[in-house]
Recover the amino acids of this structure.
């Protein structure tokens, strides 16, 4: 019996960055997002997140689309490229500026490093140091280099009730903790369970538009998800810590809050996440069914029966199992 009720209004997406072809880890995320959309009777979209041109490889977007097609994963609507959507991001930033929830920042990396050192915050691998608020109250004669989200101003304007911190309505149980700070965001991950992060202490006011003029990932992804009507985000677990910043922006831009499911990561022998940054090879699609079966195993899905010997049959097999193992 199906454990997932059909949700005709469901819209999910897979949003790869064209910094190289899909590897085994990104195929896991693609398959999971596709299965979740199909299991809910919803729509699955593909969005190419080419917002950072210096990191993009020529032709990687088309190669990713070819890889997805070889695996039977086709977008239900025309593919969208972020590089063609600058006007939407500019409009969102202007809205935040008008609402006094964004401000210019003149800090260089050297400036920030000096402040962090004075605060005793030395650089640690994989540890993000919070923005120290240097330009929060003005540029002090410096030229503007970037734009930041005024997290402190947001909190001051909308101080949370002690029993209701910033977060999604599903967080009632967690939000009863009166010891939570004003900057804490709570949300429910469909796989990982209750999550929380003190954004003010962990990240501080975060960048919306970079010093080089490029749009920050946090703003672009929130604007795109809102404009495309994304109701459910299924993506790799490494993006979990981005979620609270995106929830804050969704609230500030008056956008609906999607549901989140973060999938297991594929790791290398040393425990590091398999990634393009670490030289992950392109997924071997000489046998698409074998590659998909390996990806499905990472999602705790069984190998398809002998009767499901084609990619379409295997995908249908996994959709049925996805319905059974997910508890929405």
């Amino acid at each position: 019996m199906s454990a997932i009720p059909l949700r005709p209004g469901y819209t999910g997406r897979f949003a790869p960055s064209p910094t190289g072809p899909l590897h085994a880890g990104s195929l896991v995320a693609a398959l999971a997002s596709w299965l979740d959309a199909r299991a809910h009777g919803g729509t699955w979209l593909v969005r190419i997140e080419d917002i950072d041109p210096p990191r993009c490889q020529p032709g990687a977007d088309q190669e990713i689309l070819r890889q997805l097609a070889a695996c039977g994963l086709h977008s239900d609507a025309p593919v969208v490229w972020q590089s063609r959507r600058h006007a939407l991001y500019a409009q969102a930033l202007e809205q935040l500026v008008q609402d006094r929830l964004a401000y210019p920042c003149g800090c260089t990396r050297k400036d920030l490093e000096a402040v962090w050192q004075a605060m005793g915050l030395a650089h640690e691998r994989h540890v993000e140091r919070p923005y120290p608020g240097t330009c929060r109250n003005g540029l002090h004669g410096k030229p503007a280099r970037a734009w930041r989200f005024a997290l402190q101003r947001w909190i001051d304007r909308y101080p949370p009730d002690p029993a209701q911190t910033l977060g999604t309505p599903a967080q009632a149980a967690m939000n009863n903790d009166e010891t939570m700070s004003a900057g804490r965001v709570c949300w429910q991950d469909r796989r990982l369970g209750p999550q929380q992060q003190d954004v003010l202490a962990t990240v501080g006011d975060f960048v919306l538009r970079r010093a080089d003029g490029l749009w920050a990932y946090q703003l672009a992804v929130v604007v795109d998800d809102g404009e495309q009507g994304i109701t459910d985000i299924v993506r790799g677990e490494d993006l979990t810590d981005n979620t609270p910043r995106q929830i804050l922006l969704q609230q500030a831009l008056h956008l609906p809050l999607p549901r989140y499911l973060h999938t297991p990561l594929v790791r290398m022998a040393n425990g590091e996440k398999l990634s393009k940054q670490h030289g992950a090879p392109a997924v071997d699609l000489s046998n698409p069914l074998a590659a998909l079966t390996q990806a499905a195993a990472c999602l705790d899905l069984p190998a398809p029966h002998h009767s499901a010997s084609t990619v379409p049959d295997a995908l249908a097999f996994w959709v049925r199992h996805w319905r059974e193992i997910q508890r929405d």
Notes: The chain has ten helices and eleven strands. Residues 24-39 form the longest helix (16 residues).
